[in-house]
Design goal:
With 200 residues, this protein is α/β, with parallel strands linked by helices. It has one domain (2-199): Formyl transferase, N-terminal domain (Rossmann fold, 3-Layer(aba) Sandwich). 33% of the residues lie in helices and 25% in strands. The chain is built from six helices and nine strands. The strands form two sheets. It has a seven-stranded mixed sheet, covered by helices on one side. Helix 1 (12-19) crosses helix 6 (163-186) and helix 5 crosses helix 6 (163-186). It is globular, with a radius of gyration of 16 Å. Bound molecules: glycinamide ribonucleotide (GAR). Glycinamide ribonucleotide (GAR) is lined by residues 7, 9-13, 41, 82-83, 103-105, 116-118, 121, 171, 174.
């Protein structure tokens, strides 16, 4: 299965996808896209000889219209948002219905929505005094973090003393959960049944 990965920053989830034994000989990352003109994740793409592009209307960036043509010509079956912080335009969502997933570093539908990304999420979880957090992977729709949930895994945070500790525990889970879900997509084992996303 051909996939592309959208990133905005560090790219540790991109690295986890590239390192995953589950995805070897099954999934190929054809390109990496970012809303930024440069970001650390592009360095990961460079090291792995993967093409990378900046998205938007800046110089040397590609437009979302050109993006659709590029994804179609490359026969991309799944778009993975791995730390991508911008809203995906409706036209892209319409073309790739139920074929765009996002990883979120908390247990949705709590601690999601516009402006809830990265450490902001973990700070909110910490302040809430929640005793569990985790990672969620969901289908992407027209608004932030509201699409149907594909998979979640939780982690005990009852003993943490800082938001950073929550971030570290959740990130470990993300790096396992994301390759797992992508491999299930590649196997054709993700279905929508009775309004729920089911891994069969
Ligand atoms: C990850 O923790 C991801 O869940 C989060 O950004 C981080 C990106 O890290 N995404 C969001 O907060 C989206 N709302 P990475 O660049 O090292 O993969």
């Amino acid at each position: 299965m051909n996939i592309v990965v959208f990133v905005s920053g560090r790219g540790s989830n991109l690295q986890a996808i590239l390192n995953s034994d589950l995805l070897k000989n099954k999934v190929e990352v054809k390109a990496v896209f970012s809303d930024k003109t440069d970001c650390p994740a592009f360095e990961i793409a460079r090291q792995n000889s993967i093409k990378y592009y900046s998205l938007g209307d800046k110089e040397n960036s590609i437009s979302y219209n050109d993006l659709i043509s590029l994804l179609e010509s490359q026969k991309i079956e799944l778009i993975v948002l791995a730390g991508f912080l911008k809203l995906i335009p409706d036209a892209v969502i319409a073309k790739f219905k139920n074929r765009i997933i996002n990883i979120h570093p908390a247990l949705l539908p709590s601690f999601g929505g516009k402006g809830m990304y990265g450490m902001k999420v973990h700070e909110a979880v910490f302040k809430s005094s929640a005793k569990v957090s985790g990672a969620s992977i969901h289908l992407v729709d027209e608004t932030y973090d509201t699409g149907k949930i594909v998979a979640q895994q939780c982690v005990d945070i009852s003993d943490v003393t800082s938001p950073m500790e929550i971030a570290e525990r959740v990130l470990k889970i993300e790096h396992m959960l994301l390759p797992y879900v992508i491999s299930k997509f590649a196997d054709g084992n993700i279905k929508i049944i009775n309004e729920r996303v089911v891994i069969v």
